[in-house]
């Protein structure tokens, strides 16, 4: 079995094909797809989508790209929704949360401060409910690490990891898994491919971030969760192990990172 630990299956790019895409992924051996929310407006959408497919589960959170339009009251809504979702076996994590210091608008001082505030408040919610987190860590690794040290959640995943060896080690030491996906499939992505080959296998989970971060054979087209086994084959090739070993290890790692899976 395979697990896609990060897939925005509710995204508009899928149109009305989300359920069909999940079925296609299941036919390829993807036994679970984690669907993270990005704002309060799609909390019910991701939970309902996860409930409508055999291989769906979900997370609730406010994505840093959506922080500019978020209100402080959204944090109250999030906490209430999380409290209610704890009774739902398909609810597995707080996410997608984090920091994005890549998009210029988000790096302006006031917006940077707002991002940090929302990230810290969501870490507090995760800690209160003993939940792991799905973290967006674009150009923000060291700042993320600073705050998770101060407000440690119950582990989780550094999604689309693209940091340094030291940052990887620190995440691992703090109990996080590292998400690898389509970026690893490009031969020019030397640093990501080296890390995928050299990091402890027990620290790696697979993800698509569909419809984004398409693998090399799909780019620039729409990514989809059925690509996970082929992405896993790239990881197997980079590490010189079998596809079956990658499937077993990354599935076990995902379940360790997200115990409610």
Automatic annotation (TrEMBL):
<dbReference type="GO" id="GO:0016788">
    <property type="term" value="F:hydrolase activity, acting on ester bonds"/>
</dbReference>
<protein>
    <submittedName>
        <fullName>TatD family deoxyribonuclease</fullName>
    </submittedName>
</protein>
<dbReference type="Pfam" id="PF01026">
    <property type="entry name" value="TatD_DNase"/>
</dbReference>
<keyword id="KW-0479">Metal-binding</keyword>
<dbReference type="GO" id="GO:0046872">
    <property type="term" value="F:metal ion binding"/>
</dbReference>
<feature type="binding site">
    <location>
        <position position="6"/>
    </location>
    <ligand>
        <name>a divalent metal cation 1</name>
    </ligand>
</feature>
<feature type="binding site">
    <location>
        <position position="8"/>
    </location>
    <ligand>
        <name>a divalent metal cation 1</name>
    </ligand>
</feature>
<feature type="binding site">
    <location>
        <position position="136"/>
    </location>
    <ligand>
        <name>a divalent metal cation 2</name>
    </ligand>
</feature>
<feature type="binding site">
    <location>
        <position position="159"/>
    </location>
    <ligand>
        <name>a divalent metal cation 2</name>
    </ligand>
</feature>
<feature type="binding site">
    <location>
        <position position="96"/>
    </location>
    <ligand>
        <name>a divalent metal cation 1</name>
    </ligand>
</feature>
<feature type="binding site">
    <location>
        <position position="209"/>
    </location>
    <ligand>
        <name>a divalent metal cation 1</name>
    </ligand>
</feature>
<dbReference type="InterPro" id="IPR001130">
    <property type="entry name" value="TatD-like"/>
</dbReference>
<dbReference type="InterPro" id="IPR032466">
    <property type="entry name" value="Metal_Hydrolase"/>
</dbReference>
<keyword id="KW-0378">Hydrolase</keyword>
<comment type="similarity">
    <text>Belongs to the metallo-dependent hydrolases superfamily. TatD-type hydrolase family.</text>
</comment>
């Amino acid at each position: 079995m395979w697990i896609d630990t990060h897939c925005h299956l509710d995204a508009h790019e899928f149109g009305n094909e989300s359920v069909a895409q999940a079925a296609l992924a299941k036919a390829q051996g993807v036994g679970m797809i984690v669907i993270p929310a990005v704002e309060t407006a799609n909390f019910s959408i991701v939970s309902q989508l996860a409930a409508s497919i055999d291989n769906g589960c979900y997370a609730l959170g406010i994505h840093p790209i959506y922080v500019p339009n978020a209100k402080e009251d959204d944090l109250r809504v999030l906490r209430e929704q999380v409290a209610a979702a704890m009774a739902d076996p398909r609810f597995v994590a707080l996410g997608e949360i984090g920091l994005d210091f890549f998009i210029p608008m988000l790096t302006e001082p006031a917006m940077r401060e707002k991002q940090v505030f929302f990230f810290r408040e969501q870490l507090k919610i995760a800690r209160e409910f003993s939940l792991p987190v799905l973290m967006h860590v674009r150009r923000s690794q060291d700042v993320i690490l600073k705050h998770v040290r101060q407000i440690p959640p119950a582990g989780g995943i550094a999604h689309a990891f693209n940091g340094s060896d030291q940052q990887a080690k620190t995440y691992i030491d703090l109990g996080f898994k590292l998400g690898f996906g389509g970026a690893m499939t490009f031969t020019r992505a030397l640093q990501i491919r080296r890390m995928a080959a050299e990091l402890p296998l027990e620290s790696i989970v697979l993800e698509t971030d569909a419809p984004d971060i398409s693998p090399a054979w799909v780019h620039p087209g729409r990514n989809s969760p059925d690509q996970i086994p082929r992405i896993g084959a790239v990881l197997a090739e980079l590490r010189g192990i079998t596809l079956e070993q990658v499937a077993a290890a990354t599935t076990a790692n995902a379940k360790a990172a997200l115990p409610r899976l």
